[in-house]
Write a structure and sequence with these properties.
Elements (H helix, E strand, L loop, with lengths): L1 H13 L5 H11 L5 H9 L4 H31 L22 H14 L4 E2 L5 E3 H4 L19 E3 L4 E3 L4 H10 L4 E10 L11 E11 L4 H16 L5 E8 L2 E10 L16 E10 L1 H6 L8 E8 H9 L12 H4 L3
Helix pairs in contact: 1-4, 2-4, 3-4, 5-8, 5-10
This protein binds phenylalanine.
The site of phenylalanine has 11 residues, from strand 9 and strand 10.
Length: 334
């Protein structure tokens, strides 16, 4: 008898109904006048005394289960209106849709532009050692950037730190691969700064690196010129200003003509008519040597730019903190 109860229990459990007829046949079998559970109650009368308690309990459970299931089946059917009673011309109810973060949008656009110039996308770790972030990049031993004020150290001796720029990937690529290299490296970087509208303790950069034979400064200029036109518009003008980075020689900063005021001078360009977009230069021979690449055979250029900065310029956002606050009122504008 217990066998039969179990069999019916699983049948009830698995029962499904797609129309009224199926519900009715379920009702007839398990609940109607001559239902199978009643038959079991008949049989129950003949069961020996010592089994009565257990079987009685099971039988009552089965009966409740059948009733519960019947309700469930008819509820599920009535909640799906048939096409006859459904107005298919009513506008649908749309769910709330997320959007892509403005930083990710800018990053994707930058990647797209450089990919079309033959660069591939590489990545590296955000936690790295002093060698990849500083020493191999030709930072002198007492360079201020290594100071505790700028760098988050994870461990001291040997130094493990949160990378302060994506240039650590340059070193990793050049040490692990043979030229030609033509890569961009987007990623998050960290600096120990007081958080304000203009500075944050983390932000995003895209670094670019090209290493090969006869690569010259004009290749660098052309690459960044093409990028600027694609990113900021066809009539964008650029200029290079001499600068200094330990890992490039010569080094230059690239500015674009302020596209807000057209160069006349405004708040965004601090009345200079130009806005700074990228740091760049020719890979320093010392860096090549640190990566076991022969500087007499190969040359290369590198550049780096801030994704937040470009996004702020494009959308005229004046507070860096908005990017990491997850305020939906801000995010939904993009
Ligand atoms: N790593 C530099 C920075 O964080 C940017 C840069 C990259 C400059 C490559 C020159 C070449 O400011």
């Amino acid at each position: 008898m217990l066998e039969k109860i179990k069999l019916y229990a699983s049948e009830i459990n698995e029962a499904v109904a797609t129309d009224q007829e199926e519900i009715e046949s379920f009702r007839l079998k398990f609940i109607g006048k001559n239902n199978v559970i009643n038959d079991l109650f008949e049989e129950f009368k003949l069961v020996p005394k010592e089994l009565k308690k257990e079987l009685g309990l099971e039988l009552n459970k089965l009966k409740n289960q059948a009733q519960f299931k019947l309700k469930e089946l008819s509820d599920s059917l009535s909640s799906t209106p048939s096409t006859a009673e459904m107005d298919v011309t009513l506008p649908g109810i749309s769910g709330t849709e997320g959007s892509i973060h403005p930083i990710s949008q800018t990053k994707s656009r930058i990647i797209e532009i450089f990919e079309r110039q033959g660069f591939n996308v590489e990545s590296g770790p955000e936690i790295d050692n002093d060698w990849n972030n500083f020493t191999a990049l030709n930072f002198p031993k007492n360079h201020p950037a290594r100071n505790m004020q700028d760098t988050y150290f994870v461990e001291r001796e040997p130094d493990v730190l949160l990378r302060t720029h994506t240039s650590n990937v340059q070193i990793r690529l050049m040490s692990e691969r043979k030229p030609p290299i033509r890569s961009i490296m987007p990623g998050r970087v960290y600096r120990n700064e007081v958080i304000s509208a203009r500075a944050h303790c983390f932000f995003h950069q895209v670094e670019g690196l090209a290493v090969g034979k006869n690569i010259s400064f004009s290749d660098l200029k052309n690459t960044l010129y093409h990028f600027s036109k694609e990113m900021f518009g066809k009539s964008t003008q650029i200029r290079f200003r001499p600068s200094y980075f330990p890992f490039t020689e010569p080094s230059a900063e690239m500015d674009i003509r302020c596209f807000i005021c057209g160069g006349v001078g405004c708040k965004i360009c601090k009345h200079t008519g130009w806005v700074e977009i990228a740091g760049s230069g020719m890979v320093d021979p010392n860096v090549f040597e640190n990566c076991k690449i022969d500087p007499s055979k190969y040359s290369g250029f590198a550049f780096g730019m801030g994704i937040e900065r470009i996004t702020m310029l494009k959308h005229q956002i004046d507070d860096l903190r908005l990017f990491s606050e997850n305020d939906i009122r801000f995010l939904k504008q993009f």
